[in-house]
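The passage that follows is intended for readers who have already worked through the single-chain material. We present the inputs for a multi-component assembly, then the predicted structure in tokenized form, and finally a short commentary. You are encouraged to pause after the input and sketch how you expect the pieces to fit together before reading on.
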Amino acid sequence: MAIIEIRNLTKDFRVGFWKKRPVRALDNLSLDVRRGDVFGFLGPNGAGKTTTLKLLMGLLRATSGSAHILGEPVDSVAMRRRIGYLPENPYFYDYLTPEELLTYVGRLFGIRQPALGKKVRSLLERVGLAEAGGLQLRKFSKGMIQRIGVAQAIINDPEVVFLDEPMSGLDPLGRREVRDVIVSMKDQGVTVFFSSHILPDVEALCDRVAILRKGRLQAVGALEEILTMKIEAHEIILTRVRPEDTDRLRSMCETLSTIGDRLHLRASSSRQVQQILAHALANDAELISVNPVRPSLEDYFLHEVGAGQDGAPRE
Amino acid sequence: MRILAIAGNTFRENIRDKILYNLILFALIMILSSIALGQLTLGLEAKMIIDLGLTSVSVFGTLIAVFIGISLVYKEMEKRTVYALLAKPVHRWEFIVGKYLGLLFTLLVNVVIMTVGVALTLLYQGGTEPATFLRLLPAVYLIYVSLALTTALALVFSTFSTPALSALFTLFLWVIGHFNADLLQFATLTKSTTVGWIAKSLYYALPNFSNFTTLDSRNIIQSAAHSQAVDAGAVLWVTAYGLLYCAGLVAVAIMVFSRRDFK
Amino acid sequence: MTGLAATASRNRVWFFAAAFLLCSAMIKPVQDRVDARFARSPSVDPDMLYFASPAAVKSLSLGYQSLLADLYWIRAVQYYGRREEAARRQVRYKNLAALLDITTTLDPQMMDVYRAGSSFLAEPEPVGAGQPEESLKLLDKGIGFYPDDWRLRFDKGFVYFWALKDFRKAGQVWLETSRMRSAPPWMEGLAAMALSRGGEVETARALWERQYQNSSSREVKENAKNHLLSMQVDEMLWTVEFLAGRYAERRGGYPARLDDLVRAGYLKAVPVDPSGVPFDYDPHSGKATLSPGTRVRYLKVPYDYRDAFLQKLSSIFPK
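Having made your guess, compare it with the prediction:
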């Protein structure tokens, strides 16, 4: 059974003073997340990522549909003992020190002294806040807040962790540290569900992703599946191409660039590949390699998601 | 217990918000009054100290109850600290009860320190019998119960209303709550039965703060100032009223809070 | 910030600091102007704000009526003994009774207010308000709340006695008070003294006699006896004076000796004082006095019923 199970989850918000016009923030989302996966949740602003996370945390009530975590409905308080959550742009009580905050959270989980004290100290070390333990949170930088946020999300050694934009506001060093934490969690068998804008991170970390746009699920699956979906680009490297052929070839491909004495051509369909190869071989060019181009998630994003947005026709 | 953790944190927040600095103002008042008194009142020093002291306990306490109470829940929602909290294994009702008890505890500390201050001023003035000190206690107790009720009112408003409106409504109800006797009288005097019925319903529905200021037709601060004992039975019944009304209000707060979406 | 920018911002600071100082300096003269306009009209009541009906003030007090009572009392105390020009004073004293009424409605248990307040009211101007009727009203209010307290009734009698010069009423009040269980033993004597000044001599005498017979205290008995004897002495002296006057009218001169009055048939015997010592007689004035060798403890309390007594004598001894 999936560790996170979302079925037809829909959320309408009533906007306007007389609460007449409902705005559908999430439309019929269905999703499964397997145990042990690092699951990435992507989408442009306003796509419904944070809404989904809040619905999972019981901060919002669904208009229709259901969601289960660890087999329990999302409003189960008992289930929350086994999960962790880091909200987007988190804010914690600024008059507390990180040590006090973690101790407070620990008490809410029912962790007692002296185990609690030890755990708090080791957590602070793990997120790199050991020296700042006595400073009030109001004096923390955004990066430090994010770190304490991660710490309070994992203090109970959860089985599933939900992170809303965990890298936001962090410098590259901070992002690296969060990535390391996520990786170490994965190694420990913890399921990680996180939303992010930072696509390279998602690419590097996630086993599976879901892409949301305007409240609807656009695509879901393993990264490779998504990225190879509908995009069959190949890179063809030729050499010893006669100058007059270059123009001809240019018209047959997407892009052409010259690097040294080699021509790099990018073909976007198998038909183009065939055309190019036929022409090249017929004209005594030498084929160095033909490789499928694995597009980046960013390309996919801009292509699929961005194109769909402004209504331009897709290929 | 989780409720105690939340209550303890609320208390810590109040302390760090330096709310207890109000005690400094109180101390100043007591000191100045005990010095200035001799010049003014021709021999009513003890009464004035008690009147001033207990009135201050009530006024300062009410202001604290209102101004901190109205942001008990609102602040958490506005600053979004409530997000991380409610994702923990905490019931929504535990959150409300914890915040409420936390402020009640802050008020208790405030009231106790002030009462000790009054007692010290009396000692400094000299010539007060031990019985008078004891007779301060019922008045202080009833003032505290009225503060708990004020806090509960503020708590309810803080679950759905902005601080400005909440302060207005809470203070309004507090003032109205002292005129309940007039409302009842109006109900008996009016000729129209409908209006009388409405007035009588309002009498029972609105928080009756005069229960806590007047016991057996005598003002409780006045009784303490004249070193008079009060009827324990009356105190018990008034406490029951306070408990019931507070419990009801907390239940309302929990209901409102449970239905909330946190956008 | 360096150079020009720094200088500009520093100048700005100085400008606003100067503005603040200027405003502060102007506050006092402006306030004084405001006050002067106010002071010029003494008919404007500075305490207007304090007044509403006592019941209204009480129900508006939101449970803090005890402290409010103290504040009103402080205000009343500030009135007492201030020497201001007549116009201001008029206004203040007009307010005093109302202030005290509100105070005692807010807290009816302030004994000091009833006592000192009624004293303020009864005391003649300029020290007090000179309003004995209001004083009596206040005392009656206090007595209503403290029916068993003798001191308030004592104060009431005093207002009648000193401020209203109604000695009979004073005596009546004190007489009633003396019958209370808590009343001090001298109350009866006080009543007697007042009653006699009010013309009720026989009542006074009866009171002294009763005190003398019923009291277990030696001092009180002694005092009652002395009062009775003093009354006797006074009556004897006045009688001598009267008869000497009649003698003079008939014979053209006062008698040379008291003996002469006996020989002329006005008196049965030469009068002696209650201790048996003969009176001294001055033939030039026709008046007798107590001999210094008397054993009567004469109390120089002004029993002011001389005229009434002489009138009685006139009716017994017509010309």
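Commentary: Chain C has a mean pLDDT of 83. The first strand of chain C starts at residue 280 and ends at 282. How closely did your sketch match?
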